[in-house]
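quick one
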Amino acid sequence: MLLETRALTAGYGQFNALFGVDVTLDKAETVAVIGANGAGKSTLLRSITGVLRNAPDMVLHRGDPIGALPAHLVMQRGIAMVPEGRKLFPSLTVEENLRIGGQVRRAPGPWTLDTIYDLFPILKEKRQMPGTALSGGQQQMVAIGRALMSNPEVLLCDEISLGLAPVVIRDIYAAMPRIKDQGTAIIVVEQDIGRALAVSDRVYCMMEGRVTLTARAAEVSRSAIHAAYFGEAA
Amino acid sequence: MNWLDILVQGVLLGGLYALFAAGLSLVFGIMRLVNLAHGDLIIFAAFAILLAVSTLGLNPFLAALLAAPLMFALGWALQRFVLNRVLGKDILPPLLVTFGLSVALQNGLLEAFSADTRRIPAGPLESASLDLGIVTVGWMPLLTFLSAVLVILALNRIFYATALGRAFRATSDDPVTASLMGIDPKGIFAIATGLAMVVVTVAALYLGMRANFDPSIGPARLIYAFEAVIIGGLGSLWGTLAGGIIIGVAQSLGAAINPEWQILAGHIAFLVVLLIRPRGLFPRAVD
Ligand SMILES: Nc1ncnc2c1ncn2[C@@H]1O[C@H](COP(=O)(O)OP(=O)(O)OP(=O)(O)O)[C@@H](O)[C@H]1O
Ligand SMILES: [Mg+2]
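structure w/ magnesium ion:
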């Protein structure tokens, strides 16, 4: 297994946000994690990336325990993150924001400044502007490009559609197949269930810190998701 | 003494204050850490240079070149093993630790070198001057000023034209997101403090060649450095140079009116700038 959480329990100080979460991600697979506000989706990604540190064997990468590694070492293993709220660096231009994504780790692979400008042409025009001067959708493109610059093996996306207009979301999701085609394994966290299912092979639904549904995206029924999402009996 | 002369001397003096302040400004800009031992570290470096000059018979500039990598290592280790542990949301622990370091450094230097005042011998350079037609300037103040400009140019170049500088700025913006880029914020902080100590070595070289020093005068240098940083706007390196120059010119003007007013005039200039621009002359846009 490429990436795996085992009985992952995580939280903030005294407060527990995840209660024994098991999630797996296979090579070249795309997995959606859906769930309502506060379900623990971002906490799951923060635990994988090492922003939240846990017991070592709660997160495994290629079988190695990485649950206690600090974030920069997790990233250097090829696990890149598009954080919730984009989090561009305000002091950096668009191009510098992209470059910094591949500054410490750059595995051989398809993604370079040129191929990212090819994926999101508007960024090339705006490359000298401060990242934060862009529209929300363009900022999201920078955040995705920044994560791709390291040619990651695993890409984690936390609510990339958050706060964006439907047309902009469509443009951004249009890039997903090209990222998948490079063999990158992806976890997409989303509240937009339709979007998430359309790009994914499998789906996990979370509620109040637990996984309430695991299914193949193509087979899952609306009513099963509804039940898992809101906690009602199916 | 004519007014132009006073102004020029003041600007050149500002170079020395900018050198005192540049390291402080660098560290504050990257990790919002105020190092209360900064002045004492300058004195420490001055003693290190003096030691190399007196025992190895080196030229002071060569001695500083030798001291610089050692000071880098010291700064790196200080950050890595001490300051990184106390950095956090609460600003008090780092203040207390650096205050303690200041006291420890003063006492350590007193123990090692006694309370006698010293000076780094610079030979004929000490009194050499350059006639520019309308004004005559000492080589030493001129070199100090040029070094300050060079130091700030170099730091700016590192900040805006290198991968390390990009990591400095990103870490300063948001250390958590920087760590998602594979950058170790604590490693970046250690490099930044190491770099600040190289600047401290340059400051120590000129301080030690231009004036008498003893183990107790660090905190007084720290005040000028603080004032220069704050006048310039926290975190702006060119602002720090401007701040140093404002204090230097104010002191030089004050001294021309009455020698007893020199120090006071610098402090008054500081307060006046703060009254007019509470965030300093060139505050950083983000913060
Ligand atoms: N920094 C934090 N400190 C304390 N509690 C937090 C923190 N971040 C999240 N929480 C709490 O942890 C729980 C899970 O939050 P999390 O952000 O993982 O949810 P989420 O599924 O990502 O929600 P959203 O869809 O709103 O992003 C929530 O109850 C939230 O209030
Ligand atoms: Mg979230």
